[in-house]
Amino acid sequence: MAHSAEIDSKEAWDGGVSPFKLSYGKMFMWFFLVSDALTFGGLLISYGFIRHKYAEVWPKAENVFTHFPFIEQHVPLAYVGLMTFILIMSSVTMVLAVEAGQRMDRKGVTTWMFWTIIGGAAFVGSQAWEWYHFIVGTDHGALRNVWDAASGSYVKQVFQGANMVTNEYGVPQFANYFFFITGFHGTHVFSGVVLNFIIFLNVLKGTYQKRGHYEMVEKVGLYWHFVDLVWVFVFTFFYLL
Amino acid sequence: MSDFHDNYPQYELEALHDEAYGKKARRTLWNVFWIMLVITIFELIIGSMAPGHGWSGALWLKTLFIVLTLAKAAAIVIWFMHLGHEVKFFKYIILIPYIIFMFYTIFVILTEGTYSGTSTKATKIDPIFVEQQKALKHGHHSSGVPQTNQAEPAQNQEHH
Question: Is residue B100 a part of any domain in this protein?
Answer without folding.
Answer: no
